[in-house]
Design goal:
Order of helices and strands: HHHHHHHHHHHHH
Oligomer: single chain
CATH topology of the largest domain: MetI-like fold
Number of helices: 13
Helix content: over 70%
CATH architecture of the largest domain: Orthogonal Bundle
Shape: flat
Largest sheet: none
Radius of gyration: 24 Å
CATH superfamily of the largest domain: MetI-like
Distance between the termini: 14 Å
């Protein structure tokens, strides 16, 4: 298992290098000059050129990329923000915990409600409960997050005045952003849980468990759900990574000072180091989440763990 984890970590290196290269190229070929934005309207050419020289924008792109990559390798230096003149890593880490907290709350809500509704839908197949659950999942996947957020604000914040419109001043401020971000993920988990459970509850060992006189609750939770968890865990891992990056829309709608909103503002201001550093941080987080999902596989499914053990004995 340790060798497998080390191998997966080494495989992350070329992925992250590819992410750095693609984002660096895309940000630098996009229209707009950061020096002109920082200098402001009406600035002279001399001022713009001086800013370009100060920011290192006059160097050839290969030189800029090499310097940027060298800073990351030697000390995880993501550069300095053009707008605030502060280290990018400090700016990102001051906002990243808010985004992580939002993503974890969304995944928790999606997992609890999604798995529960998926199990009920599979057990009550072709009933009114199953049809309502399937309809909810279709509605959740089809609805854009920004539209859902604005509708929730309109109903619960403006008309009913139950929650704040924006910001994170109290625990009530988390309710609408969490619901907005978790709706699509919850719908996906409902569909995946339902399909996995339907496939499992038709197996022979479930029929045998019923013939032995076990209660339906024990059969569903201990036998069926445990064997249906592998695809569900995969979806949960993907949803956590998606919510880390997809929090951009939610944070923008609810004016949350997180990583997503900060990156959107930085894109508008052509703050290249912030955009590059933010994408790199999200890529690392997504890769670590996938690694964690693979490790959980071995503890949920004994067959996967036995494969590692057989491989180790075979090499010995």
């Amino acid at each position: 298992m340790i060798r497998y984890i080390a191998k997966r970590i080494l495989m992350m290196i070329p992925v992250l290098l590819g992410v750095i290269l693609v984002v660096f190229i895309m940000t630098h070929i996009s229209p707009g000059n950061p020096a002109e934005i920082l200098a402001g309207d009406g600035a002279s050419d001399e001022v713009v050129e001086a800013l370009e020289e100060e920011l290192g924008l006059n160097d050839p792109l290969p030189v800029q990329f090499f310097n940027y990559l060298k800073g990351i390798v030697l000390g995880f230096d993501l550069g300095t923000s053009y707008s605030t003149r502060q280290p990018v890593i400090d700016e990102l880490m001051s906002r990243f915990p808010t985004t992580v907290k939002l993503a974890l709350l969304c995944v928790a809500l999606s997992a609890v409600l999604g798995i529960t509704l998926g199990i009920i839908s599979a057990v009550k197949q072709n009933t009114i409960i199953d049809h309502l659950s399937t309809g909810f999942s279709l509605f959740g996947i089809s609805m854009p997050a920004f539209w859902a957020g604005m509708m929730l604000i309109l109903v619960f914040s403006i008309y009913l005045k139950w929650t704040p419109v924006s910001g994170l001043e109290s625990w009530k401020s988390w309710i609408l952003p969490v619901i907005t971000s978790s709706m699509a993920g919850m719908a996906t988990i409902v569909r995946m849980t339902r399909s996995s459970m339907l496939e499992v509850i038709c197996q022979d060992y479930i029929v045998t468990a019923r013939a032995k006189g076990l209660s339906e609750k024990v059969i569903i939770v201990k036998h069926a759900l445990k064997n249906a968890l592998i695809p569900i865990i995969t979806v949960l891992g993907i949803q956590l990574g998606v919510m880390l990056g997809g929090a951009v829309l939610t944070e923008s709608v609810f004016s949350i000072n997180g990583l997503g909103k900060y990156m959107v503002d930085s894109i508008k201001g052509r703050d290249y180091p912030v955009v590059q550093g933010g994408v790199l941080l999200l890529a690392i987080s997504f890769s670590l989440v996938n690694l964690l999902v693979d490790i959980i596989y071995a503890y949920v499914d004994p067959r996967i763990k036995s494969q590692y053990s057989r491989g180790k004995k075979h090499r010995a």
